[in-house]
Amino acid sequence: MISHAKTALEQALIDGPSFQDFATLLEIKELVARLETNMSKGRERYELEELGASAGTSRRILRRAAHEWPSDVSVEHQDVILSALERLSSNSDRRDEIYQQGAEAARETSVKHTHEFVKKLVREENEHLAKDPFEAYHQRRFRLRSQDEHGGCSFHGYAPAKTAALLKALLDRAFHSEEGKEQQPRNVEQRNLDAFDQVLQWASSDRIVTTGHASLVVSVHDSDTFDWRTKFGTNVGIDLNLFDLANLSGDRISDYIVVHEQNGAVKNLVTAERTANFLIRIALLARDFVCQHPGCAEPASRCDAHHIVPWSRGGPTSINNLGFLCRKHHRRNDDSHVGQHMDIDDGIPWWINKNGTPKRNNSPGAKRAGGRKRDPD
Ligand SMILES: [Zn+2]
Q: Rounded to two decimals, what is the model's pTM?
């Protein structure tokens, strides 16, 4: 019977099918997926491969065969749910529950959203089950593959938060250092690699540096609970735990600053080199944490310290005349203060919109700033 269907489809290819049949064709695809899954139950992967299925296809089919598959969940949805579940810790007893939630989402949202949703559930469950503060450290890996025909090498890896935060701080710094240079148009991934190359050049140069190339700033509050699950925000948007902090503060290569602060005031600084600009940036971080445009969450390492009264008109470089703005929102700021612009009132930055209404940045990112932890609004 299936060979009849094959003949019919081959004939349709010759006849030139009408677009009217497109929906039916999708239904056939769905049927084929269900059939191949049923046929493969109890089979070994090599058996499917011997019949011509690729390694990846065999794996996907067998994964489906090993699970329940409700009739109203499409094959694409089913595959992304099962793929996300592969990362679930083997200690979890909530596998079925997470699957059910995924299947429910699949009935209502796109494949992409279902995938993101199940990945999020798996991440939360793994985080909840995590017993080992060094899990990410144990899983660390980096691999530089051998050269391909063009001479280039690909690499991939996994870094614990400490390493990731350091790398991110350096990459963001490298991004900034090349702004204004004439460059051929590059996509984001090319820019990332160029920044990475810049970081490597710094690392291999013998230039003596006292303050490091990157600033990694951590905001710590007196009332934070000090157990290893506590996450401390940083200027690069990667959270660190106590072990990461302890690990970093012994290092002298970059400026790792721990800001212990209460009610927004800077209480204690640990720094390699103290310069006025540097201290101002730290105080700004403690106060602002991210771009201060309402709704924005761009981390401080990607922001400019914007002069509210322009420097060219005598505005001082002081904490009461500065606020973080990302590139996009910095461009929107009207320095003449006629259109939308940033203003400061009693030490707090506000965004004044076109109608003159002041608005504060209440994004979740902004509210993580040390100075706003007790903020009621
Ligand atoms: Zn912004």
A: 0.46
